[in-house]
Amino acid sequence: DINPDQIVALGHVRPNAWSVRLFEALNRRVLRMAVKVVTLDKFMAQRLQAKTDLGDRLEVIPPWPLVDQLHPEACLDNPFRWEHGLVGKRVLMYSGNLSLAHPIEPMFRAMLSFAHRPDVAFLFVGGGAAKQQLLELIERHRPENIRYLPYQPLEKLQFSLSAADVHLVTMGDPMVGIVHPCKIYGAMACARPVLLFGPRNSHLGELIERYQIGWQVDHADTAGAVGVIQQILDADQQTLAEMGRRARAAIQSSL
User: Fold this and answer.
1) Are the C-beta atoms of 210 and 233 separated by less than 8 Å?
2) What is the C-alpha to C-alpha distance for residues 208 and 75, in angstroms, rounded to an integer?
3) b/e map 221-230, b = 16+ CB within 10 Å
4) Is 220 helix (H, G, I), strand (E, B) or coil?
């Protein structure tokens, strides 16, 4: 993540605060002295270039996952599905850090439209600063098919990630070029399509569009999000599997 940009975008400090000006000056000094600067996507690169001219010292290297540790697992034979009562359901999963930088409430509102569906499961797996917000939403609305689970042990990760039919990723609009949600790579490595809640003009949006591996909706478009989730629920398994194969192939071709 790029700071103090993130803390300013979150509204925790003013852009002209003395602490922000100090850290910006330090950042520019470090960037000017660096032999090589590595960042995670082109949007981050543009932000760093705006701080100081890095020329050919700047390189973009996305954090692709270790595919040898994440193998696609068939849903029907997945022990994580059996353990958590997910067999026979269409599972949409958010797995990873619940960050204040990435809104979860718009996603949750769209899920509530399907809270009456026993054949659907929405699963949040992870933790983070926004975990309490999620738990409060679940407590307030008491949906039967929206659940929370803590971070899973590393040895179970391939099974938990593969238990999803579709993975959910969220990105706050002001965070483009500041943070880089890496959870999309785990989903792709496990051959699962992705639904992005966030701006199309972002690294995540470009991945989804370039490889045709999912869907994108804006945070403010609740009706659109409900429509996309309905498309996912109506999609046949072959369509989802083909998206997943393209996602896995994209990961393997980029290593």
Assistant:
1) no
2) 22
3) ebeebbebbe
4) coil
Judge whether 75 and 159 are in contact, CB under 8 Å: no
Our CA angle for 235, 239, 241, nearest 5°, is 120
What would the pLDDT profile of 36-80 be if each residue is shown by its tens digit?
999 999 999 999 999 999 999 999 998 876 656 666 776 668 999
Quick one: how far is CA 69 from the chain centroid?
Answer: 19
* Cβ neighbours for 217, distance < 8 A, ≥ 6 positions apart: 110, 195, 196, 197, 224, 225, 228
Q: Which residues on neighbouring strands pair with residue 95, listed in sequence order?
A: 125
Mean pLDDT of 189-213: 96
Cα–Cα distance for residue pair 194/122, rounded to 1 Å: 14
Write the DSSP symbol of residue 152. P
Q: What backbone torsions phi and psi does residue 97 show, to the nearest 5 degrees?
A: -70, 130
Cα 193–175–179 angle (5° rounding)?
Answer: 70
**Using the 8-state DSSP alphabet, how is residue 4 labeled?**
T
Q: Give the span between the Cα atoms of 191 and 249, in whole angstroms.
A: 8
Give CA–CA dist 94/66, Å, rounded. 20
